[in-house]
Fold these 3 entries.
Entry 1:
Amino acid sequence: MASAKKRGPLAPAIRRDPYEVLGVSRDSSDQEIKSAYHKLALNVLADAEKRRLYDNAGFEALESDGIDMEIDLSSLGTVNTVFAALFSKLGVPIKTTVSTTVLEEALSGLITIRPLPLGTSVSGKVEKQNAHFFSVTINEQQAQSGIVVRVTSAAQSKFKLLYFEEEANGGYGLALQEDSEKTGKVTSAGMYFLHFQVYRMDSTVSALAVAKDPESAFFKRLEGIQPCEVSELKAGTHIFAVYGDNFFKTASYTIEALCATTFEETTEKLKDIEDQILTKRNELRLFETDYRKALTRYQEVTNRYSQEKQSVDELLKRRESVQSSFTMIKLPADGSGCGSSKVPGGEFRAESPTEDGRDKSAKKKWFNLSFKG
């Protein structure tokens, strides 16, 4: 057995200040600390993925600005997977990729496919980094009406909903994927083939934008809206899959395929809300420019307010000092000599009269009388 390198018994443990690690000051707000933590988490996972890309594809792929960063859980190892699970639990969105094994099996056609009739639902549990495949067969009328495939998990499992297209060799290639999102007390993902443009939410895009600029969190909430590549299905058989995306355990799910014929009102509502969200995203982009201009102007005004207030206070203080200089009275520092006053031409001491109004000088003469016995 190879001997491990031992550490000296007196070697001090290396500990770093958590504020230093996050790059924030000790008086930072909770939101600032949380944003810094999320940014650090994303950087740690990105570095792990960059190292993998460096080993596989070389330095050129690592330096590409347009690279779409996705984490392959099978390449992270146990320790990094634990960190990824912790970060995900804290609300850091982690974009993962479908394992190569699943993609190769689908491409070769070596997969088990179960039928999923329209209007029915199927529940199951899928192992992590594995997939359960389902076939949905539709006729021409159903294709014209539109098809919806949704997956939910009451256990709030992480999963992916996948759509495969048939290849020339008889296998299936991945065409679409939707990551599960937490909606209320469940996690869910859906694909909507309704003959109009439907958008999906990529939470990692918004999270990365917020990590770079926490103040823009509100304006970046809709930046993750991305158009789906496929908006309609033709008559025939189509292959979907539920992929287990949990870090350690199996994913519980329920999948269902629906025809939009019985959901005409809901379909119109979805079309309307998608248009409103897209319009709102464009409005926010314009509003952000105006907001930042106004914010800059506000900061300038508040800074001037502070300067003007300090200037006015200083002027009033100087004015009071100048006004108090108009006096001939000199007040001793110890408070003595309160009865003396200084006037031009000399000094004098004012004598106060007695209680009966007689002059003190007369009283003094009375005491000077001599008596002879």
Entry 2:
Amino acid sequence: MATGHRPPHALLGGGAVADVLLWRRRNVSAAAVAGATLVWFLFERAGYSLPSVLSNAVLLLVIILFFWAKSASLLNRPLPPLPNLEVSDVVVQKAADRALVWINKLLAVGHDIAIKRDRTVFIQVILVLWVVSCVGMLFNFFTLIYMGVILSLLVPPFYEMYQDLVDEKLGLAHKVLSRHVDTIVSKTGQPSKQKKAE
């Protein structure tokens, strides 16, 4: 591995999620692939909708818990081991903090486009939204989520095996794309380095 490269495990946060994404916990990774495939099959091929699946799952759970509790009281058995179903303030605060970071990044991009009139950011946003629109026309929502889950379980181990080669090719692609964006920006009349000069 070349110097200056962070290992993929560290790039993914270094915890249990990184272990699953890099297939270091093979059973959990395989279960994630199987679960994603089952959910995709239910929604895409079997014709179920998300509300019907959720309502049927909750209905089944409520029936099981009800009869479990009734039989436990009749047979002097323990009640169902339900945890305290409550969201803590810490979890809500962490989620709000993470959401705030992303919202501020989006607002900063909007500020760069609308107030600073940064054409480079404007063109990059247009390109990204165009690609998202094209991909969105080819696949529906659940297929996109399924593809995202599968790619998130296939790309990290591939990247870990071929990190130097992938970094080299991505660097070349970034240079070519940056050159094209700079050409488009220069044709619109704004120097591409204006943002750095401000």
Entry 3:
Amino acid sequence: CVLCFQDSLDAPLFGEDDDNISPKKSRIRHPVASFFHLFFRTSAILVYLLCEILSGRFVASMVTIILLLSCDFWTVKNVSGRLLVGLRWWNQVDEDGKSHWMFESRRVSRKSLNTSAESQIFWLGLIVCPVFWVVFVFSTIFSFSIKWLAVVILGLVLQWANLYGYVRCKVGGQASLRSMAKNYISVQILKKVELKQRGPAGVVF
């Protein structure tokens, strides 16, 4: 498994306009993305908890939960992570069958576009909701409710995949950026040393 980190330096992610306006830290710049970041995952949990009360039909409840979980996985992976915290991850398989985990972070000069309110919403929803599915897995096993076991495991896997991907993206991306900064500084120092050695007329002493 190969890990690849990159910083978006050439163009802004997500089709945003490249402006220099720094928003207030408490302001939510992407209310729709923030809403759906929490809507699908909390709705799946609520449907699971209330399905016996709202509907006695197992198949209908199961399909509804799976659809909500699928929508949540796609939204968090492709939309809310990019807009709310400037991170993106994906996995691709090359021609040799080798799996590559790809991580991308918004360039440093544009990270001021992320507000603390959006970041808190993103990470709170990303971390708290998988905990519920862990509880559901154990409760399903202990109550011998085997028919729900596949559903709760699916919920845990999908939400845990996003959590794992974004945590690795954030931690690994920061390490990658520090490495890039060190390499850049080293290159600049070497260039200055070479210029000094050549002298004003370009003659090497």
